[in-house]
Amino acid sequence: MAKDGADRRRKLLNGWQEARALLWRHRRSLSIGMALMLVNRAAGLVLPASSKYLIDDVIGKRDVRMLLPLAAAVGIATVLQAAAGFGLSQVVSVAGQKAIAEMRRQVGAHVLRLPVSYFDSTKTGVLLSRIMTDAEGVRNLVGTGIIQFIGGLVTAAASLVILLRLNWQLTMGTLSFLLVFAFGMSWGFRRLRPAFRQRGEINAEVTGRLTESLGGIRTVKVYVAERREDRVFAKGVHRLFRNIASTITTMSAITSISTVIVGAIGLTIMIFGGRAVLSGRMTPGGLIQYTVFVMMLAAPLVSISSIGTQLAEALAGLDRIRELRQMTTERDDDLSRTALEEVDGDVAFDDVAFEYVPDAPVLREVSFHAPAGTTTALVGPSGSGKSTLISLVMGFNEPKSGTVRVDGHDLSDIRLADYRRSLGAVLQDNFLFDGTIRENIAFSKPGATEAEIRAAAAIAHCDEFVEKFELGYETIVGERGVKLSGGQRQRVAIARAIVADPRILIMDEATSSLDSESEAMIRDGLASLRHGRTTFVIAHRLSTIRSADQILVLDDGRIVERGTHDQLLRRGGLYRRLYEKQAGVELDRFLNPGEDPLTAPADVVASPATSRVAAAAEGA
């Protein structure tokens, strides 16, 4: 219990610290807003203050001379109040929207620089909620919320001073009711703030799951999982509803307390104010003036309860944003690392171990050397650690033990931004952005010329399908490249890597979505791309890595074999078993009566392994 209380106090302090920093950054707009608010509130006091003179002097004493000056004062004050109110809304509203945009930009930039490991364990929808929804509450701090809150306090304070001068005994009784109201608001805010914080977390979870469902809509429909996803989403929505319902109950309680307090104050004025008029201690105009100022005292306090709720929600959002912004980014790490002006591409692993989950190693005692300009192929069963090894090469993760060296430098000691400028990658998911084909090819090099883009497209054989589109390179590919086929997306990804002109090239199943004809067409282009670059290749089609300088065979996170294609075949180990198994499957496909054996890849038919399999098949 004590720990929970300390945790709440810590979060409250963090929220206020973030709020103070935010208010200080926008102090100029807030200062102008405060000045306009004071003018607006002061002008608003003229009309209720004039009510006493209108009733007691102009009407009661029939002093007609006071009517026009009184009306002129009220008219001028009204115009001034309207002008100040308009200026106030313009200044603070623009400042609020500017603060929201600035907060979203800062949080978005911070998130983009977080380590890949953070994204591996965090849903995209959660991050979207942090960036877009949590920042929305900033408006209540920098915008109208904080100004209205302070304005209400100013009006209440001014009204209280006037009420004490009019009838201090009656005002003291009124204050006793207001103290009860203040206690009720304090109770409500203590309940609301953690509820609002929890609402943000639930909303992020629900948004995250919905984003996943929509992103994987094809998978959902293939497995007729609409009902299951609907149930999961419905549960999340119900949790959100229960949270909102509980906060509505609390806010309704505050509002009800406010109503009771206002009613009690009204009854007090009726009874004691009426007696004061009958006894001659107050004039009728004085009682009406007193009643109006009591309303001006109570109304801001009632509205403060609503504004206070908004501010509590804003502070809860700032709590979550602060937690996110306190996370260490790759840029923060780079500040203490050594700059790397040029990369040759010499990569070495020294006894590297890695695990995503404690005590569940993915890589164990991995050591190898990939000299600059050479091609290293990674082979092994699914789950053997190939993609994890590539992830370490790209600096997405750091080893649990051991060292990854680039040009003799420990990768953890050099700036990742410098290192990654020398990287190019064709990954399994072939991610494309919702833009044109030209923009996607040039993504790796924004300043790429038209000649560079078309040359890369020609090597990757993109030009063949691009020319068939009406808009050519200006064709929009859709979200994640959905308007292109899998093979077309892969060719665009290959062209993107070619344009980058990297020193270290990563090819994770670079031709997996291509048919045999397309693969054969771009094989020469990929070979020329690999020339002079340090290349890491993951390929399940073992026939595509025969020219690799070295092949590393992984099994259960360890390198169990290494060598060239011919050396590994002669050795007769895991690589040879994988190769013969794959070659046999391919040969069986081509020997099927429904297939044309002449379409079989030459390197498969001619290989010793396939010859043995073919002979065995004929003998059978």
If you had to describe this structure to a student in words, what would you say it looks like?
The protein is an alpha/beta fold and 620 residues long. The protein folds into two domains: 2-326, ABC transporter transmembrane region fold; 347-603, 3-Layer(aba) Sandwich (Rossmann fold), CATH 3.40.50. It is built from 24 helices and ten strands. It has helices at 2-25, 27-44, 46-60, 67-112, 116-120, 124-136, 139-142, 144-166, 168-215, 217-222, 226-278, 284-325, 330-334, 386-393, 416-420, 437-441, 450-459, 463-466, 486-500, 516-530, 565-571, 574-591, 602-605, 608-619, and strands at residues 347-357, 360-370, 375-379, 401-406, 409-410, 423-426, 504-508, 534-538, 550-555, 558-563. The protein has a six-stranded mixed beta sheet with strand order 6-7-8-3-9-10, with helices on both faces. A four-stranded antiparallel beta sheet has the order 2-1-4-5.
